[in-house]
Amino acid sequence: MKFNISDADRNLSELLRISSFIVTDICEQQFMEEASPIHLTKNQYYILKMLANSTPFNLSDLASILSVSNAAIGKNIDKLVQFKLVTRRFTKTDRRSAKVSITTMGRDIIEKYNELKISKQVEIFKQYTLKDKEKFAEYLKLFIGNTLHKDIDTDILCLQCNRFCGDDCVVKEKKGTCIRKY
User: What is the spatial distance between Cα 61 and Cα 63, in angstroms, rounded to a whole number?
Assistant: First the structure.
């Protein structure tokens, strides 16, 4: 099937792909490495990030939000417990059910990561006017909303905004699995 895509659409699509790659594969990885004395996988970092902004989670809720199996989340939690970044408390009635919480050491890693990220963002964003930033944010919200509402099952999605979006969450009218609910 051949698609009729304009040069402007192709250019925008490629710029979005490159931007996504830079943010997720370069910047986030660099910040994680600088913030943590321990090598963490992306999922382990995301687990810490969610726990730093919420009350304790059940393992199954974490697995659902990250779209991984219960076994995979269990292995990640085992490593984080071993690194003393999280604690796991089993319920008295069901040994398979556990609540996971972040430790001070885990929270320190997330705080350091956030400091590094904010520092980099300030450096980048100071090049733009307030009006430019507001317009860019408006376009990004439209893009994200249109992409999610048309192509993605948002019933099991969390954008992992860490409560930043608040009532402006682009998936708020869907059921969505959101860490803000916990």
Answer: 5
